[in-house]
Amino acid sequence: MKAVLIRKHGGPEVLEIADLPRPKAEPGQVVIQVKAAGMNHLDTWVRRGMPGVSLPLPMIPGSDASGIVAEVGAGVSGLATGERVFVSPGTSCGRCDACLSGQEPLCKDYRMIGEHQNGTQAEFVALPAANLLPLPASLSFEEGAAFPLVFLTAWHMLVARAGVRLGDDVLVHAAGSGVGSAAVQIARLHGARVLATVGSPAKADKARALGADETIEYKTKDFLEEVRRLTGKRGVDIVFDSIGQETWEKNLKVLARGGRLVNCGATSGYQCMTDIRYLFSKGLSILGSTLGSRAELLRLARLMGERRLRPVIDRVLPLEKVAEGHRAMADRALFGKVVLTP
Ligand SMILES: NC(=O)c1ccc[n+]([C@@H]2O[C@H](COP(=O)([O-])OP(=O)(O)OC[C@H]3O[C@@H](n4cnc5c(N)ncnc54)[C@H](OP(=O)(O)O)[C@@H]3O)[C@@H](O)[C@H]2O)c1
Ligand SMILES: [Zn+2]
């Protein structure tokens, strides 16, 4: 079968299209024929390598996918060949208190598909049966591969961690990012007013079309001053951040009293300065977040199926053009997701 393969870390040129043996379904596993595989910023970390993290190479990247059940392993019930499914992007032990209380990403055995084990950017992938969920009939395969990881992350950040409420003001950084384009919609669905930062006028138009009430082009305007102006100096109740270093210090200043800063990433760097005077004097909360539970993913699939939330796809590329997806991501040229079709 055809698969994207990373044998060593480096630039987009290390991405190889390899011919590999088709995986077989081990007991408890299911093989799916991948119809569409989503790309995430994580793919670029896996390709580049992460400081202090050793990944098992060679590796097939990709955490998101949808497709058709091609083979069912021994001991699997409730899934049959031919069914349309999508992939839940993480695996965990299923037995510990974190797993049993719907906090799978806190399981000490939590592993990402496409980071710690072979991923989805291939014609076939073998996965634990628990990682395959039914794809709503109204969603295309491309849509089914575009939403899981980023919507799950944004939902858990805003709903479970930051407790977004009707009437909140929410600042979403990088509304054109995968997680940001999900956050704009999720905050709106909960009755919040969304202020969104974007890197270009074209992205501002797209963010407004998604539901952002206000957009801030942060390269030409200071987001702190703009938020103060737009909120009558009050600040926002929630800052949704995946940027890290470049936004951190102002994030604390831009929060209203009692505000919550929720973060899932360090796109611009991870060493951040926290002036704790803002923390205690304004009663702020700083919340870290990673992915979410399968229960949250099932709810998201229903909301997607009902079209109350929408996957945001920038472009669909053939698998062979995976390097183009990596380059577009590095150039910050995307609004939403790249989906690869094998
Ligand atoms: N912990 C988790 O569970 C989890 C899950 C998903 C993602 N993440 C992390 O969250 C971040 C976003 O992921 P994603 O897949 O949504 O990313 P993405 O789609 O590639 O979007 C990244 C966007 O961030 C903006 N940006 C702002 N400052 C930047 C900088 N210094 N360098 C590069 N881009 C910058 C750019 O948009 P503008 O040019 O418009 O500003 C860029 O397009 C990544 O760091 C990822 O690893 C974490
Ligand atoms: Zn566990």
What this model shows, in words?
With 342 residues, the chain is of the alpha/beta class. The protein contains 11 helices and 17 strands. The strands form 4 sheets. Strands 3, 4, 5, 8, 9, 16 and 17 form a 7-stranded mixed β-sheet that branches. Strand 14, helix 9 and strand 15 form a beta-alpha-beta unit. Helix 4 packs across helix 5, helix 4 packs across helix 10 and helix 7 runs parallel beside helix 8. The longest helix has 14 residues. The mean pLDDT is 98. The protein binds NADP nicotinamide-adenine-dinucleotide phosphate (NAP) and zinc ion (ZN).
Radius of gyration: 20 Å
Q: Count the E strands.
A: 17
Number of helices: 11
Low-confidence stretches: none
Q: What percent of residues are in strands?
A: 25-35%
Q: What global shape is seen?
A: globular
Mean pLDDT: 98
Let me know the largest β-sheet. 7 strands, mixed
Can you list the ligands bound to this structure? NADP nicotinamide-adenine-dinucleotide phosphate, zinc ion
Give the termini distance in whole angstroms: 10 Å
Overall SS class: alpha/beta
Helices and strands, in N-to-C order? EEEHEEEHEEEHHEHEHEHEHEHEHEHE
Secondary structure topology:
Layout: E1 2-6, E2 15-19, E3 29-38, H1 41-48, E4 64-72, E5 84-87, E6 90-91, H2 97-100, E7 111-112, E8 124-128, E9 132-134, H3 141-146, H4 148-161, E10 169-172, H5 178-189, E11 193-198, H6 201-210, E12 214-217, H7 223-230, E13 236-241, H8 248-254, E14 255-263, H9 276-282, E15 285-288, H10 294-305, E16 313-318, H11 322-330, E17 337-341
Parallel strand pairs: 10-11, 10-13, 11-12, 13-14, 14-15, 16-17
Antiparallel strand pairs: 1-2, 3-4, 3-8, 3-17, 4-5, 5-9, 6-7
The chain binds NADP nicotinamide-adenine-dinucleotide phosphate and zinc ion (ZN).
